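Regression check, iron/sulfur cluster case 722:
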Amino acid sequence: MGLRVGIPRALWYYSYYPFWRTFFESLGAKVVDSGPTSRDTLNMGVDETVSEACVPIKVFVGHVKSLIKRWEKREIDAIFMPRYVNWSGRTVYCPKFLGLPDMIRYSFSDLPKLIEVRLDARRRPLALLRACNTIRKELGAPRRLLLGAYVKALRTLHRHNELLRQGVSPLDSIASTAGGTSVNATSGKVAGETREDREARDNRETPVIRLAVLGYPYLIYDRYVNLGLLDKLKNLGVEVITAECVWPHLVQKEASKFIKNLFWTYSDMVAKAGYYFLDLDANEAKPEAHRIDGIIHITAFGCGPDAMVDKLLELKARQLSKPFLPLTLDEHTGEAGALTRLEAFVDMLKRRCMTAG
Amino acid sequence: MAVATFPHMNEYSPAFRMILEELGHEVIMPLRPSKRTLTLGSSFGPEFACIPLKILLGTYLEAIEKGANLIVTSGGVGPCRAGLYASMHKEILRSLGHDIDMVVFEPIRHKPLDLLKSVHRLNVARLMPWQLFDLLYRAWQMISYLDQLEHLLHWTRPRELKPGTADAIYRAGVDSLCKERSLKGITSRGRQAVAEMKAIPIDKDADPLKIGIVGEIYVVIEPAANLDIERILGELGVEVHRSIFLTGWTKENVVKEGHRVKAGMVARPYLGEMVGGHGQESIGHTILYAREGLDGVVQLAPFTCIPEIVAKSILPAVSRDFDIPVISFFLDEQTGEAGFRTRLEAFVDLLARRRSRKRQEKQPA
Ligand code: SF4
Ligand code: SF4
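Current build output:
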């Protein structure tokens, strides 16, 4: 039987899980994902992490801990623990991603086998393929399977990104790219407009508000951590668009004119998407669906890079007088408080729209 | 005319002033960061920015009040926020209606050309290359003497017979050194001050506890950012070893890679990746200090400092493997002096007890 590999559902999961699942499965391994974040996961993470760390790191550690427990029950054999340094050849991941395997190794005394690889696309050509080869060796799979598995994984990743661009949420996309069956893309929409949405809108009196919700994928798509924020917005009649919907080409082109590259991959994405959305009115060529009434920026308490990103967005939004709401999440964020702020913000926007229109 | 200012860093301001004045600028000296500086910085800076960013912002604002319109600063190394400080500051200052100019020095290894360009931009007096060289050499000498004096201060404080002597002589030495401009003046003053420091009567048998300080460069170097930890420790009778000095840092960072890389190398098995800032060095220096037989290590970091958080989560393992106690402080604008001092005192107590226990074990009666 193939190795059973646990993958934590946190951090890079939302962007890259389809790739790794396909890759591992093509090499005959079995992939076990740690499941949605729960109160338990978060509590375990908080207990095992230095208190200064940001929530997403705590969540990650919690997921690792839950995988360790499954290993103790002999449900898995190893945990996949890549060191995400640089995937695109351009920006690096937040330093905490860079130190992650070390942080994990020194936080737990009893660990299953860690499948560690360093993913850095900068220095050598085909660096990712080489990294994949390292994994293949660890799995003990024959060399001839490597290329096929790699290409297949890339394809899945491509499909995943495509779905994200159409506004499908990563979790739905992951579910749909799993069996190879193509699930109806509209069923899992978080962003953009489905037909039902449009009909519903036509029947409503108040104008529809479209908001860009910006933040790291592991914050805006982790329902537990963000208190179901996207659903709440939907219930308030807001149409949501996220950075993934316009990433990467569009944003890259438009925003690099205004802002120097940030170092960190996800921060760069969020800041540029923000600039892209904000500057939209100035540029006639942009599609109607990308015009927004305001921005909600979701940040993690104690996140270093976000302190910069948030300020940049705030300054830009103020300059163009676009409404801007920063929401900071931490392990104690109360649901009531966050919801009140959201409602107030949306109400304000609705009034604004009414008076303007 | 450009009125220049720069970040405040320990006692180094006079050296920077010398450089800028001789390049043909009027200079506004940055104030030693105070409560007000920090308040200014944190009310206009991002809430979760690291404390160096806030202090710098506050310092700039105070200098702007006095008429500065050109800020000369350095960028950071590695994938951390310091590299973005300058553009961040510029944006914030502009949003407050201050139209200032900024010259940013990046490490020479990365972009040698940019460095030349920055120098050229600053050189309004149109100094010739050899004059420039001479100027930088003098500044370098001054900084080296400042560092040397501070080294001596750390060493003498726990040993002096009359408390306060070392501090007084250090102060006088620094002040007289900083008045000098000529190479001859700097060297003779510097030598004299060093000799005076060495002449302070000390308790020759003293065997003070030795504590190493590691962490992020700005909070390690700037006493106003670290609640003057070195003085507190010195007064508690501790010999302080500081991992970062400007001469060491500049030499290794701007020109070549030296000790810093060594610290990085020994950190390798624990943290296999440059995480930016001084994360790797904090681990490396802790290991080096343990090998040198120091009694304990203090890690200093700004609140939300990314590399140091990574380091902190690995330090317990280092501390265990090398048998050296480590205490971490994450500083922000709320860090109170009283609590800080209490925790330090407790740490020093612990080290003292640990040392005497160990010595007893070594020589069983
Ligand atoms: S980017 Fe922010 S939230 Fe993400 S790991 Fe880094 S510090 Fe944490
Ligand atoms: S090393 Fe720490 S203090 Fe320096 S820029 Fe990075 S986060 Fe800020």
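Comparison notes: Confidence is low (pLDDT under 50) at residues 250-259 of chain B. Chain B touches chain A at residues 45-50, 79-81, 83-84, 87-88, 91-92, 95, 270-277, 279, 303-307, 309-310, 312-314, 316-317, 330 (CB under 8 Å). No diff flagged against the previous build.
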